[in-house]
Amino acid sequence: MTATLTAPLSQALRTSTAAAHEQAEHSTFMDELLKGNLGVEEFIVLQEQSWLFYSALEEAARAVAQDPIAADIVDPALERVPSLESDLDALHGSTDWRDNVTMLPATEAYVRRLQEIGESKDAARLIAHHYVRYLGDLSGGQVIGRMMQRHYGVSEDAVTFYHFTDIPKVKPYKDNYRAALDALPLSEEDRERLLNEAAEAFLFNLNLFNGIEKALAK
Prior knowledge:
Structural class: mainly alpha
Family: Belongs to the heme oxygenase family.
EC number: 1.14.14.18
Number of domains: 1
Distance between the termini: 42 Å
GO biological process, one term: heme oxidation
CATH architecture: Up-down Bundle
CATH superfamily: Heme oxygenase-like
CATH topology: Heme Oxygenase, Chain A
Organism: Corynebacterium argentoratense DSM 44202
Oligomer: single chain
Keywords: Heme, Iron, Metal-binding, Oxidoreductase
Largest sheet: none
CATH class: Mainly Alpha
Strand content: under 5%
């Protein structure tokens, strides 16, 4: 605990969430999807559930964007909802899917947490979810997009979620993001709350992957 309280926040986040990150990244559902052992329908369900929780995440981010804790982190260039909508339009061949998406229980729990954070304007906890999702997307997203194309024949216009067109150079952006994390004006209590919430965020993602697997097995 002492190390996570004294280390730069970006390092503390990486260290304190390592186990939860590993669990989420290597869930059975994601392993099978990335190995090409599932199908395009499973990918569509993942993107539909992602659309639901990213909508909540980005609404919460806008709610705290002016807070000193969030101002240097929240960036419209990261927003994924427009690209998810475009991808799902391409995957479904129409826009009708918006009225027919079923929110799975794990997604509902995730969305509720994000909505609560936005309503309470808890910038520290918002940054935890922001870090878990967007830095992960920046780190491995393009590879996932290519794998979806290779394994399932998904078209280029259905994987725009994985391409940050407003961020031409990802590595410097990630470096600047981590530097901004390290410079956040956090109290000790804020920092501890943020670190705890980041571990929770990975668990929400793990539960989401497990929930999709369970729903598709029925």
